[in-house]
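Page 42, continued from yesterday. The earlier attempt failed because a stray header line got pasted into the input along with the sequence. Redoing it now with the clean sequence only.
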Amino acid sequence: MDLKSGYPFWAVKNGLMQAFPPLRTDLRCEVAVIGGGITGALIADELSSHGIDVAVFEQRDIAWGSTAASTALLQYEIDTPMATLARQYGEDNAVLAYRACAEAIPLLQAKARSLRDVDFARVQSLYYASRRRHVDDLREEFALRRKHGFDLQWLSAEALDERFQLKAPAALLTALAASVDPYRFCYRLFGRLQRRGVSVHDRTAIERITPTPRGVDLVTAQGHAIRAGHVVMAAGYANQRWLRHKVASNRSSYAFITDPLPAGQLDFLTDTVLWETARPYLYLRTTGDNRLLVGGQDDTIDVPARRDARVEKKTRKLVKQVQALFPQLPVQPAFSWAGTFAETDDGLPFFGAHPDSGKRVLLAMAYGGNGITYSAIGAGIIRAAIQRQPHPLAQLFSFNRID
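This time it went through. Structure tokens are written below.
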């Protein structure tokens, strides 16, 4: 399925950075990772770094699926507020999930620094109340996070206007967030893996997966056989085709980016990502070359032709939203696009085995707005499962929570 519409900026900016050969022979490995996006890259990097023989297979070009459409806001804040998660799964589990996301930000920063030139930047996150009636929920969220030691500030309407030229009833400001070029990050990771000796193959579709008591047999569309001890499914929302029942809903999100703006015009946003309490939410961030990146207007359309037809209209709506917030900003889209992603009911990901597929087939479903952050966490969960080691998030992020 076509995962995106329009012209995703990252792919246009970077082009085809590196070629990875299709698989042309039979192959054996300890772990076969299916999916050449950022989730597959982070998992393969984690496994390889711990001495596990891994091979990666992508049916398209590397990073050409949802990764190319990602807007790559890296936050510890989950789309589902901590207070809501606490009511669903208990306060301890809610804090565990948020703390794991917080720990993933410096982990991703270290990886980005080791790769270099991926437009990684540490920023702060401003989560503002879209409506006055949202303020009470925002206060509850503030109190719960502060109770558990999270570093954040409460900003009044006056403080928001003074510091960010933003007219909103209130907001939470946190120092722990980041942004990155996800396409470049993904290519750099796979390039390093290939130099380490990891087999990375794009344009290699897997047609059949057969678990056995001692491993998993895979067959490509070209008829080549792959024998692996485990398989990790990191194919985005396409993972659900391997399950009898859906565990998430497909959604499309829309985005645009401007040309570089003159120095000074984005100073109040240079080190800050903005997002709001409304659902679906508007979000804004900047890039290293002073572009404004805007996303939102999510809907439930996942039919490519229908999604494609909406890009222009959705872009106009996003422009109007930004102009209403910041009338002083000249907002002219240079590129606009849409991407289809999956979203769980509770906003949490799934990592691990599913009863439909057996213990040797592990699914990596980094679904929701925290896809890259979740992938960084999930890489450790997947490795622990393969090495038969415990992981503190293995249960919460497993399929057991929907039984």
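Notes: The first strand starts at residue 4 and ends at 6.
Reminder to self: strip header lines before submitting.
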